[in-house]
Structure formats: C-alpha cells, structure tokens
Amino acid sequence: MINTAIEKRKILLCEDDENLGTLLREYLIAKGYDVTFMPDGETGYEAFINENQKFDICIFDVMMPNKDGFTLATEIRKVNGVVPIIFLTAKALKEDVLEGFRIGADDYITKPFSMEELIYRIEAILRRVSGKDLRNSCEFQLGKIVFDSQKQTLTTTDSQLKLTTKENELLLLLVKNVNSILQRDYALKAIWMEDNYFNARSMDVYITKLRKILRIDPEVEIINIHGKGYKLIVPNKL
User: Fold this and answer.
1) What pTM value is reported for the model?
2) Quick one: which of 140, 65, 143 has its CA closest to 153?
3) Pairing relationship of beta strands 85-89 and 107-110 according to DSSP bridges
4) 3-state DSSP call for residue 222?
C-alpha cells in the first residue's frame, strides 16, 4: 500500500551504475515517490536546474563520470542551500564522509545497503524538513539577529542569510535551549536519528558553521560544555 503522505515527493537520483540506479528508481516509485533518474552528475545538474523540476530530496552517488557527486552537490548548493542531499558511496573513509557533510549533505550511506535502510533515511529527513517543530516555529531575536526557522533565514538590518536544513534544525534546538545546555546525545538523536561517530563529527562541522555565521553579532555565541553538549548564549530573552 502506497503511503499517501509521500505520494508526490520528488527525488533526483544520480547513479552511474545503471542496474543499481534502475533498481533504486523502481523501488522508490513502488513506495510512492516521483523519481527522476540520471546516470551522471552533469545530466543530474541539468535536471535540477530545469525550471519544471522541483525536487524534495536528492540522492547522489559519489563516484560518477562527467561530474562526481561532491562536485554536483557543491554546484547545487550554490543555487539551493536547503534541498536535502543523501550521498551513496562505496568508500567509507572518514575524510570522505566529513567532506560530504562539509559540502552540506544531510546523510551518507555506504554501499552495500538495504532498500529498507534507504527508505528509512529518506523518510527521516523529510519528516525533519516538514516536521511539527518547523511548521509551528516562528521568529526569534538573537541579539541583533532575527532567526526565522520557518523561512530558514538569519536577518540583520543590512543582510539576510539562508540556512541549510541541518543548520536550521540545529540552531532551532539551540534556541529552544537558549542559555541552557543542549545535550549532545539528544541533539544527535533528534536531528541525525543516531548517536554514532560519523554523526557526531557531522554535528561538530555544523556547530562550527553556525559559530561563524553568528559572528555577525559578537554577543551571540555557541560554547562547548565539556562532556555534556552546547549552550547558545544570547544577551536578551527570546
């Protein structure tokens, strides 16, 4: 039975292994998704920027001809900073995983993987993107910065910055625990769904990104609480 909640979700799938790509496409369609399948990064990018294509999530193989998955994701992030991206790869090196997260990946799956695992990860990401917290959230004043968690923006008197989905979710958790400790394990399970080494390193990368972004107001900062987690320090009440 097709899950009507995801019936119209559009996926851009880029995979150079035709057999695997076809199998994934057919499986995802059977689960109710609308899938555009491209065999390399170049055609994948063309599909993404097509005005008639609006994707809810992207799944990219890392090693592809013409344009690899990391390059494709980097170029897509220049035109869309929030669309969720999952990388598929046969490589499990920590450096490659971290590079993927630095680019802005939402998840990273090592081959071989089960179809059920892929569906679980897709649905987990889509729940976070359109979940209850994001729908019901509003604007927060962080010193001189206005954080809008629905629009995923940080605004000052003379600039506006668009946050990625992960940056937005992590900052929202910090805001909800402002001037208090956000437990590290709680954040990992709430956003990454699992507390493991790779996810923990990914969260460290995003914390670093948020620190750099928030420097536009020197009085707003994220500090480490050793052995516990993080604390967002804001000079005024939200």
Assistant:
1) 0.63
2) 140
3) parallel
4) strand
